[in-house]
Amino acid sequence: MAEPDTLPGVLLRNAERYGGKTAIREKDRGIWQSYAWRDYRDHVRDFALGLAALGFTRDEKLSVIGDNRPRLYWAQIAAQALGGVAVPVYQDSIAKELAYVWNHAEVSVIVAEDQEQVDKALALRAELPALRHVIYDDPRGLAGYRFDWLRSFTEVEERGRRFGAEHPGYFQAELIRGQPDDVATICYTSGTTGDPKGVMLTHRNVIETARTFARTEDVRPTDEWLSYLPMAWIGDSIYSLALSLTAGFACNCPESPETVQRDLRELGPTSVLAPPRIWENMLTSLQVRAADATPLKRWIFERFRAVAERVETLRADGQPVPPGLRLVYGLGEFFVYGPVRDQLGLGRARWAYTGGAPLGAETFRFFRSFGVNLKQVYGSTEVSALVSLQPDTEANPTTVGRPCPGIEVRIADKGEVLIRSAGVFRGYFKAEEATREVIDAEGWFHTGDAGFLDPRGHLVIIDRAKDVGALADGTPFAPQFIENKLKFSPYIREAVAVGHDRPYVAAMVAIDLNTVGNWAERRSIAYTSYMDLSQKPEVRALIREEIRTCNATLPESTRIRRFLLLPKDLDPDDAEITRTRKLRRRFIAEKYAAIIDAFYSSQDEVALVTAITYEDGRRGTVPSRVRIEDVEGAAVHG
């Protein structure tokens, strides 16, 4: 029997094949609620029929907004079953961002998690001419809302059951009309250089990509997956939806973003995907806990950490581990490594991936050395999130692994990485010219990433091609590489390295408020705000030492010579970073031009007027004066 070729078709197969096996869970009021594959199918069918009763037709767009919830996943599959298109958006987006995406995609139905998200749609209602219905999952706080276009998920399902009784066979007939090359979802890019673009992915794109991953990695129907990443991120669309459906494993939705770490420990998933920031935060929390421990516990942790790093270095180099070191490492597994993995919720994980952006080599090696099978995966929204991944025995922080079977990788003359695969997207929605710029006549997608294939056939990504530059003396300069080195420090949350066409490298640093705040409290250093803390002389001295540590691992020509502590964290609401925490370099260069110029002048202090965006969309400014520091204590002005 032929395998289903649309996501709703795969769901129907799972309901027949797996029946009562758990498909998805959600944590609600401290209790895990489970739904079997049969339940999953029934909810999707009833909601799809409810949408049909409301007039939803083929090619219409349905958007979901909120934290990871079963009903938001069901709504996407239901829309696709009717020939519609799912458009997930980031739940923390400000009004301007939502208005752009919902208008650009011509969204006619919004499925919102709760009152907070309904209020966003309500505030923008007059700006969304295509919007006809808003449907909510959680009814708390919405009892007094009276709008003819607003209704609950449960009400739509009830309407669907009535519609199904009146139109027997409607759901199956619509589902059968679906074709593998129909657009299944539009995922909007993070928009690092301008407005986000709508990436149209077909059922064939996402299903073939999921099957390629499952053929390459050890994926099992018995796996447990934690669905906590933003639903608008391509990684969640592929792994929580497409891979879960094709492989048949269970997804688990945490109670809230604040409980993710606790729910992770409670669940103990067998497979994990997290962007670099999550791994960095985990490491930071461990480092802080170790620093706060008793002297004996701190000594034990650092002793066995050093042992783990030596063992991991030998393994990575393909060298044998001496018996004595192997014995000490075994003791470390009992006293330190195993308990740490359990504390992080990674005790059962057979494999774990980092993707979406480069992960610092030190962070990568730390988790590997503590027994976490952490590996790198490389992809982008336009190629359905998958190009290459690392085999268990070839994990390496300097590469992103081997191209997966069936995925072609070519390096263009100028070093740009080109991809051709079944996962390459159909095109950008309403942007044919932009599509032609990135997909050539032979079907190769031009990623914009600079890289090469090493002698083992592993793909190495250097940086975004447009970001790779050179210092004034011609020394190659890859800012992301330096930034990742800096962010290994638990005290540094974000960093921006500058130096293209300049005599040396300088850096703007945003401190980690929690970690630096704890450090200051232990030393009785009083502070009132992020700005106040970041400008303390003691904090500047702390970060100077962290930068010196980083410099020791860099070639002398690209070492950081000057730095400045920003008076605020970089914020997606202020357009400085994307929702996936990628730097918007062009915007940052314009916004902080005065700082960048001051790095290369005789200035030791610069006046800064920082524009900020409040949660309700209002904008304001905060004036400040910030000091520019020389890393080695001697002036190095250009």
Q: What are the salient characteristics of this protein?
A:
single chain, 638 residues, alpha/beta, Rossmann fold, GMP Synthetase, Chain A, domain 3, 3 domains, 5-stranded mixed β-sheet, 21 helices, 28 strands, 39% helix, 22% strand, disordered C terminus
Structural description of this entry:
This protein is of the alpha/beta class. Helices cover 39% and strands 22% of the residues. It contains 21 helices and 28 strands. Strands 4-3-5-6-7 form a five-stranded parallel beta sheet, sandwiched between helices. Helix 8 packs across helix 9 and helix 12 packs across helix 14 (361-369). The radius of gyration is 25 Å and the shape is globular.
Report the CATH topology name of the largest domain: Rossmann fold
What is the CATH architecture descriptor of the largest domain?
A: 3-Layer(aba) Sandwich
Please count the helical segments: 21
Envelope shape: globular
Count of the separate structural domains: 3
How would the blueprint of this fold be written?
Layout: H1 7-18, E1 22-28, E2 31-36, H2 37-53, E3 61-65, H3 70-81, E4 85-88, H4 95-104, E5 107-112, H5 115-124, E6 133-136, E7 150-152, H6 153-166, H7 170-177, E8 183-188, E9 198-202, H8 203-216, E10 224-226, H9 234-247, E11 250-253, H10 260-267, E12 271-274, H11 276-292, H12 295-316, H13 323-344, E13 351-354, H14 361-369, E14 374-378, E15 388-389, E16 402-403, E17 408-411, E18 416-420, E19 427-428, H15 432-438, E20 445-453, E21 459-464, E22 469-470, E23 476-477, H16 479-486, E24 492-498, E25 505-511, H17 513-522, H18 530-534, H19 537-551, E26 560-565, H20 585-591, H21 593-599, E27 605-613, E28 619-630
Parallel strand pairs: 1-11, 3-4, 3-5, 5-6, 6-7, 10-11, 12-13, 13-14, 25-26
Antiparallel strand pairs: 1-2, 8-9, 9-19, 14-15, 15-16, 17-18, 18-20, 20-21, 22-23, 24-25, 26-28, 27-28
